[in-house]
Amino acid sequence: MAAYGLYSHIQSNRRRSIALLIGLFFLVYLLVFAGALLAEALTTDAPIDYLVRAALYDLTKSFPFATIGTIVWILIAYKFHQSMIDAVTGGHEVTRTEEPKLYNLLENLCISRGITMPKLKVADDDALNAFATGLNEKQYSITVTRGLMNALNDAELEAVLGHELTHIRNGDVRMLVIAVVIAGAISFFGEMVFRLFFQSAFYGGFRRRGGDSDRKGGAGLAIVIAIALIVVAWILSIVIRFALSRQREYLADAGSVELTKNPDAMISALRKIEGRGELVSANSAVMEMCIDNPRQGFADLFATHPSVDSRVEALVKYAGGHDPGPITLDVPAEPGQLSAPAEDGPWGPRDQPEQAGDPIRPGEPPAGLGGQPDGPWGPHRG
Q1: Which entry of 40, 156, 164, 274 is annotated as an active-site residue?
Q2: Tell me, what's the pLDDT at 7?
Q3: Does residue 124 share a domain with residue 28?
Q4: What CA–CA distance (Å, rounded) separates 107 from 88?
Q5: Residue 267 is assigned to a structural domain of this protein
Q6: Pairing mode, if any, of strands 141-145 and 119-123?
Q7: 134 or 343: which carries more pLDDT confidence?
Q8: pLDDT tens readout for residues 219-268
Q9: 20 to 30 A from 20, CA-CA: which of 176, 281, 288, 378?
Q10: Are 187 and 286 within one domain?
Q11: Is pLDDT larger for residue 121 or for residue 47?
């Protein structure tokens, strides 16, 4: 588990990134062929072998345009992906003056390991989440939600920042961004082909040549094959995203512990984030970059993250941390209100969060630990 900057993992991510880019071009060509087959089937009634040859010829002619279009798409994503993500999440860059505590925590982590400090951004969202983005050292940034900043104490925030820094150092961020680019390209090309098909079907944009008798054995089958290829390409683009190893989250958790020397902070941060990380305005691609993704697939088959329970179990087993169990946080009464009265705790009625300088009442745990009592090793760290 203590594998911060694990060399084999970094090399694996580099190989996967190259494979993903190659896969992107393959899927684009597959979609172009499917579109050409659809066009031939909708304009010509002929045997299936003739339609396939005609579609291959169309693919050959359009090959340079498809290649150039894909390269342009990659360049646009390379240049503007961060702006698009910020527009979706509402993230904005902050300075030391604006967020001194958060900025200093990140800077200290970077200085301790000689890491180039990424940009620091804050998203004004009540959700508890954080994510890293970027394709190179000049682009890397870490975004933290306002809800996370309000719910976590300094040690827990430091653990989350360490987790995201590990993603950057291990190459996970670059690989995830490339996967998002692939999903966007396939969605674009797939939607374009489907629109072309439905417009021709409903508005008669295409005119078939030949007799209807041939269409039953040729054109009709060609249409079925073309649609099947489009569906396969779309499914493969999804599988590529979900096939990215979930091991990256375990390694990022371990990297955070290696940076902060505080497994308990990483565990309590995960317990507070658990089930509270939904960014309503973000699409599934952005959620896959987050420290926790509450949008799980059926039967955990398409889950992009391991469960918090399994991550905590690994930290307890390999890093010597202590699991406080699920942590109850105050539930906001209204959007934008990050703290509300909660139920009575084991020490009596729960008051409003204490302000800086307020004394801690005897027998009551420090604020921010979710009402967890002292453990067998003494008071929990703040």
Answers
A1: 164
A2: 58
A3: no
A4: 26
A5: yes
A6: parallel
A7: 134
A8: 888 888 888 888 888 777 777 666 565 678 888 999 999 999 999 999 99
A9: 281
A10: no
A11: 121
Is 61 a member of any domain?
yes
Active site residue 288: no
Tell me, yes or no, whether 114 lies in a domain. yes
Highest mean pLDDT among 154-163, 231-240, 299-308, 357-366: 154-163
| pLDDT value at residue 152 | 96
Q: Both 229 and 273 in a single domain?
A: no
CATH number, residue 106: 3.30.2010.10
Q: Is residue 179 located within the same domain as residue 159?
A: no
**Residue 122 · residue 149 · CB < 8 Å:** yes
Please work out, in degrees rounded to the nearest 5, the angle formed at the alpha carbon of residue 198 by the alpha carbons of 197 and 202: 125
Q: What is the mean pLDDT of residues 10-30?
A: 77
Instruction: State mean pLDDT over 143-149.
Output: 96
Buried b (16+ CB within 10 A) or exposed e, 79-107: eebbeebbeebbbeebeeeebeebbebbe
For residues 23 and 74, state if they share a domain. yes
Establish if 331 belongs to a structural domain.
Answer: no
pLDDT bucket at 165, cuts 50 / 70 / 90: very high
The token duo for 55 is 């579609």
In 121-146, which positions are buried (b, 16+ CB within 10 angstroms) versus exposed (e)? bbbebbbbbbbbbbbeeebbbbbbbb
**Does residue 138 sit in the same domain as residue 253?**
yes
The count of domains in the chain is 3
Domain that holds residue 348: 341-382
58 and 157 co-located in one domain: no
Say yes or no: 163 and 253 in one domain: yes
Is 17 in contact with 175 (CB distance < 8 Å)?
A: yes
